[in-house]
């Protein structure tokens, strides 16, 4: 960390206030070319001291705002580090995340400490400013009295000059008083210059220390983040995935597929692969139509006789079918099997893709998988259909070509 140093100039001697702030040559009254009653130099010095006091206040405000910002930033970092999750992570990545949260919290704590240092600097500057204010007011009150006395003496000197012969003694006293005023002015100017020098030196050191604080903060931040980077170098994806599989594995074998058993199967062939067949029809295979019913939880086969003989009698279908396995009856399939004269070549033959329950008197209820005959396709999406001698309206999007 660099230290504040005092620079000195060897090429140019320092200027003194006592030689630079005398009266202006354009003041109203003058004695032998010098402006005796003009206070422009004194006013300039006083104004400079007031400006320096304002600069001290500005420096205080800067440090106060920076302290508040550092404190808020540090608290926010601590809050972020404490609220951050990461509890679901495991192994090396979790360790990296935890050290990151720890370092962020350390950085936040360091910023809060830096805020306290800045507040102490503000108090020092405020104490210094108040001390200079008291010294300035003390000498300023003296100088105001001297200035008033100087003006009064000057007037008396002018009057004495007019009546020199009569009031020669008063003129001597006035000159003696003027000498005292000159000595007091020189002493006051030395004090003012010393105050200004102290103020400039103090503010320069404060700014220097302020820069050193933040230089050290940058080094600390880099050290904290370097710890995170070192731990991240050991983070391995394969290691974390293997750790998770070893800790949470639920099994390495998939479940066996469900064997399909047809509801209508009368005899099971070895090469049927789960398909159901009916005997009869001259050894020819019956046409099968598959539909899915949500009540069954599996596929159902609906058989009709060979479509080449559309007028052949359908296979008998009882109202309640029960096999050795205790299967319940299939709702919706009875109507599909009981249609007497539905041909696959008929363009008006449709199958119900979804179940629909009639809500009006002119509507027709259909069950999923039923074959119905469409008499008229309305443009509004409602089709006129016939089923088991009943006629009514059915939504067209509920039907599909058989």
TrEMBL record:
Coiled coil (UniProt feature): 118-149
Biological process per Gene Ontology, one example term: actin filament polymerization
Entry-linked PROSITE patterns: F_BAR (PS51741), SH3 (PS50002)
Residue intervals of the F-BAR domain: 29-196
SMART domains from the UniProt entry: FCH, SH3
A GO CC annotation given for this chain: actin filament
Entry protein name: Proline-serine-threonine phosphatase interacting protein 1
Organism of this sequence: Dissostichus mawsoni
């Amino acid at each position: 960390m660099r230290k504040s140093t005092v620079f000195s100039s060897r090429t140019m001697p320092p200027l003194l206030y006592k030689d630079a702030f005398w009266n202006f040559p354009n003041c109203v009254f003058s004695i032998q070319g010098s402006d005796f009653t003009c206070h422009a130099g004194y006013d300039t010095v006083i104004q400079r001291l007031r400006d320096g006091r304002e600069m001290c206040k500005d420096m205080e405000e800067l440090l106060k705002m920076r302290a508040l910002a550092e404190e808020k930033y540090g608290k926010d970092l601590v809050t972020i580090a404490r609220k951050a999750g990461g509890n679901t992570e495991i192994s090396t990545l979790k360790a990296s995340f935890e050290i990151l949260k720890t370092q962020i919290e350390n950085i936040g704590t360091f910023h809060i400490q830096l805020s306290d240092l800045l507040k102490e600097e503000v108090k020092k500057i405020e104490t210094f400013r108040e001390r200079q204010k008291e010294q300035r007011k003390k000498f300023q009150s003296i100088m105001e009295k001297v200035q008033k006395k100087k003006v009064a003496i000057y007037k008396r000197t002018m009057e004495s000059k007019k009546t020199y012969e009569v009031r020669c003694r008063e003129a001597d006293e006035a000159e003696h008083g003027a000498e005292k005023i000159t000595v007091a002015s020189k002493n006051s100017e030395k004090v003012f210059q010393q105050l200004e020098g102290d103020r400039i030196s103090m503010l320069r050191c404060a700014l220097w220390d302020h820069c050193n604080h933040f230089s050290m903060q940058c080094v600390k931040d880099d050290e904290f983040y370097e710890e995170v980077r070192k731990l991240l170098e050991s983070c391995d994806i394969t290691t974390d995935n293997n750790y998770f599989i070893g800790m949470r594995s639920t099994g390495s074998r998939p479940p066996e597929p469900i064997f399909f058993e047809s509801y209508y199967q009368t005899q099971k062939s070895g090469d049927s692969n789960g398909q159901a067949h009916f005997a009869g029809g001259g050894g020819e295979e019956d046409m099968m139509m598959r539909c899915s019913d949500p009540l069954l939880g599996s596929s159902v086969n609906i058989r009709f006789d060979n479509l080449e003989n559309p007028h052949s009698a359908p296979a008998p279908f009882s109202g309640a079918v029960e096999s050795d396995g205790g299967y319940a009856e299939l709702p919706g399939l009875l109507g599909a099997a009981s249609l007497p004269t539905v041909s696959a070549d008929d363009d008006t033959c449709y199958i119900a893709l979804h179940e629909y329950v009639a809500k009006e008197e002119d509507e027709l209820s259909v069950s999923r998988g039923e074959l119905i005959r469409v008499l008229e396709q309305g443009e509004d999406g409602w089709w006129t259909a016939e089923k088991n001698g009943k006629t009514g309206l059915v939504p067209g999007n509920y039907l599909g070509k058989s």
